[in-house]
Design brief:
Length: 416
């Protein structure tokens, strides 16, 4: 295949392989299939599946759901509309951020399990003609000269196959599976981990700052309907909101050293650490877990290499990971997929796609990622979080400014 000469746009039947069917990968696949690209979406899991996440879908995602043709399905899936997010300092002081500040939608955000949300997107992808290979893992990257030209996959029955592609997207989330494979194969440059400012981070500080995320669905929580509550405690924070079937999702992020101290036992962490937050103790004291806790190491905040090799583009968390307390990771996944889809549709070559994608990505996310990296430092230091909550209680304006700084500019035209 001569990729140099191939114009992606002039050939709408160019083959695009998207790896990972989270919100970034599935929405990218749908957007490209809608304009007649030949799209193959590869996902190692079988959907619906549980996924570690706060499951807070910010209202700015609705414009994307409408574009993708899944808005009605998302609302009908049985989640909870969230009118406000309330942040609680350990002693119980709180500050509220109404969801309508994000896009003016009076009905608020949506709290829906990732099992349901990701399933709806995958079903839409299938319906629109995307070839979906689920229970299939990508295990290698194929090269022709210095360009990526396909992937090696392992099917659910253990068969190894090769799939060729003109353009590939790494939508494997924070794991950045394809990007890491490229680094290992040393195809372009050694792996560089970018910080929010674009500087290379010190691997030592990475280990010291390692975090672990936990999540489970609970019954019998004592939480008002329509609210998402965030609890700060020594060494971390957690979010609680109802999802479907009267269950609530509780997801918390905590320093790895605290997890070690409590032998990775979520129950002990909650009772001995998180219950130091008075509000968390009140809402969670009778809660019962309805499935096993999911736990995963969480690191690699900030921007990554968006174009690890020619023809390969990183999208969603694989391209940049924003702090979970902003409740905007899924939004960034959908937004970055839209930017990449437009770059692929509008540009004639892999190099032109890369240039446009990097430019638009920086324009849209650089400031947001920087503000969030500063706020992350406050989130893990109780004295700072107390101070921040007290300061934000001084008035609506500082709250609005800070809340808006973590997300895209809101304009009336995005509210359809
Ligand atoms: C603790 C925590 C809480 C969060 N809470 C929220 C929240 O409340 N609201 C919010 O908006 N965001 C939240 N986020 C962020 C959000 O979860 C992510 O931003 C979002 O999932 C990114 O989507 P994605 O499609 O890029 O990746 P993912 O959703 O991670 O999807 C990646 C997919 O790739 C698949 N995959 C991986 N490897 C392979 C392989 N080798 N072959 C094939 N498939 C593969 C995986 O199975 C997965 O389905 C949270 C994150 C964390 C860590």
């Amino acid at each position: 295949m001569d990729f140099m000469a191939k114009s992606v746009t002039s050939n709408p039947k160019s083959k695009i392989v998207v790896v990972g069917a989270g919100p970034a990968g599935a929405s990218l696949a749908i957007r490209l299939a809608k304009v007649d690209f030949d799209v193959c979406l590869i996902e190692r899991e079988r959907f619906p599946r549980h996924k570690l996440c706060g499951e807070f879908i910010s209202p700015e995602c609705f414009r994307h759901f409408r574009d993708l043709g899944v808005f009605g399905e998302m609302l009908a899936a049985g989640g909870e509309r969230i009118a406000e997010t309330i942040f609680y300092a350990p002693e119980g002081k709180s500050v509220s951020v109404p969801s309508r500040w994000f896009n003016g939608d009076a009905d608020g955000a949506l709290s829906l399990s990732r099992a349901a949300m990701d399933f709806q997107l995958l079903e839409k992808a299938k319906a629109i003609g995307v070839e979906v290979l689920d229970e299939t893992s990508v295990v290698g990257v194929l090269f022709e000269k210095e360009r990526v030209c396909g992937v090696k996959i392992r099917t659910n029955v253990g068969e190894i196959k090769e799939i060729s592609a003109d353009i590939l997207a790494d939508a494997t989330g924070r794991a950045r599976i394809l990007g890491k494979m490229i680094s290992r194969q040393n195809a372009k440059t050694p792996d560089k981990r970018f910080s929010d400012s674009g500087k290379i981070q010190n691997p030592k500080s990475k280990i010291q700052n390692q975090l672990v995320g936990f999540k489970a669905h609970l019954k019998n929580v004592n939480l008002p309907k329509g609210a998402c509550e965030i609890y700060f405690f020594d060494g971390g924070y957690g979010g609680l909101s109802y999802v479907e079937n009267d269950l609530a999702n509780f997801c918390f992020l905590i320093k790895a050293e605290a997890v070690k101290k409590f032998n990775s036992d979520a129950r002990q962490i909650i009772e001995q650490l998180i219950f130091q937050n008075k509000r968390a103790a009140a809402t969670l004291k009778n809660a019962e877990v309805v499935h096993d806790w999911l736990a995963v190491a969480v690191d690699g905040f900030g921007r990554k290499d968006l174009n690890p090799a020619t023809n390969l583009f990183a999208v969603g968390d694989a391209g940049a990971f924003i702090d979970p307390f902003t409740g905007s990771g899924m939004l960034m996944a959908l937004e970055s997929a839209e930017i990449l889809a437009n770059a692929i549709i509008e540009n004639p070559s892999a190099d032109a796609i890369a240039e446009k994608y990097k430019l638009e990505h920086a324009r849209k996310f650089q400031k947001r990622l920087f503000v969030c990296s500063l706020m992350r430092r406050a989130a893990f230091v109780p004295a700072f979080s107390r101070l921040l909550i007290a300061a934000l209680n001084l008035g609506e304006l500082p709250r609005k400014i800070l809340a808006r700084a973590t997300r895209p500019a809101y304009s009336a035209e995005i509210k359809r």
